[in-house]
């Protein structure tokens, strides 16, 4: 191979190129710099894109919701400003894989803590206690979970909600599983299904949307306790501890209360008090 001589000018150009590369966004797969405070470093955070009041991508490309506010607060405590956050859509069925692959640093996406998931990922929190409920049409005669026997029930692939209903309340319910809750809401509106089941916080967000006001109602059932946690790659204890510290600070300085009012207030959602970190309600 014939080697070319490097002139002083070309060496300077090369040095500048290397410097620019070093200062660019983080493409190393770690999804966050060690300091999180300079050089255009980014942090990738998993959220939902289609859950009003929790995690929603708006038409103008911005993001809103309680999970978004919690994640933004946590990221700030980890050393990242809002403009350093890269939001990544993580659907229910892919949350564990996204963490295992290193696609995101952490996930705040209505991620209920349970024993099965805790074998695959680590959790910080919880940061919200929700309850499983049913969303039905405003004129529906479904008032109890047992009324779903023989009815068509919709939920999202990877969610535990529909399985809970079939196991504990309505084994003869006809289950339809789709990719997003928006698809379930559309199916409920068209009459393709009789009910949508998931957490009351999620259902309240949909019921309060302008296009659905007066069309749907929550059945008002507390079918389970859903402890929302922040998912972290298995074994990343350092990040879990930092997030837990951030969540405790968010509650103590009342930023948690403000986020609840901002995102759930319009839906008149009767939320539970802020849970204590590590306090899992069975």
UniProtKB/TrEMBL annotation:
PROSITE patterns: PROKAR_LIPOPROTEIN (PS51257), SBP_BACTERIAL_3 (PS01039). InterPro entries: Bact_solute-bind_prot3, SBP_3_CS, Solute-binding_3/MltF_N. Residues 42-267 form the Solute-binding protein family 3/N-terminal domain. Keywords: Signal, Transport. The keyword Signal applies. It comes from the Bacteria. Residues 1-22 form the signal peptide. Belongs to the bacterial solute-binding protein 3 family. This is Glutamate ABC transporter substrate-binding protein. It comes from Streptomyces prasinus.
């Amino acid at each position: 191979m014939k080697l070319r001589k490097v002139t002083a000018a070309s060496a300077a150009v090369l040095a500048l190129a290397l410097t620019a590369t070093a200062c660019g966004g983080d493409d190393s797969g770690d999804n966050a710099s060690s300091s999180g405070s300079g050089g255009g470093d980014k942090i990738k955070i998993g959220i939902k894109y289609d859950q009003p009041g929790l995690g929603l991508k708006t038409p103008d490309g911005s993001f809103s919701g309680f999970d978004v506010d919690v994640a933004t607060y946590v990221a700030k405590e980890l050393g990242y400003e809002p403009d350093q956050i890269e939001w990544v859509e993580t659907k229910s069925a892919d949350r564990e894989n996204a963490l295992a692959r290193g696609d995101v640093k952490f996930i705040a996406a209505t991620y209920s803590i349970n024993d099965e998931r805790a074998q695959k990922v680590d959790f910080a929190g919880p940061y919200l206690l929700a309850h499983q409920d049913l969303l039905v049409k405003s004129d529906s005669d479904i008032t109890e979970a047992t009324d779903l026997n023989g009815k068509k029930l919709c939920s999202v692939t990877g969610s535990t909600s529909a399985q809970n209903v079939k196991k504990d309340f309505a084994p003869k319910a006809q289950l339809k599983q789709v990719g997003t809750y928006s698809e379930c809401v559309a199916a409920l509106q068209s009459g393709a299904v009789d009910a949508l089941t998931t957490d009351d916080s999620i259902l309240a967000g949909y019921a309060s949307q302008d296009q659905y006001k007066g069309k749907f109602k929550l059945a008002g059932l507390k079918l389970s306790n859903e402890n929302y946690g922040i998912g972290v790659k298995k074994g990343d204890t350092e990040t879990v501890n930092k997030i837990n510290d951030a969540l405790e600070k968010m509650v103590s300085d009342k930023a948690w209360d403000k986020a609840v009012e901002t995102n759930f207030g319009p839906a008149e959602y009767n939320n539970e008090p802020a849970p204590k970190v590590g306090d899992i309600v069975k």
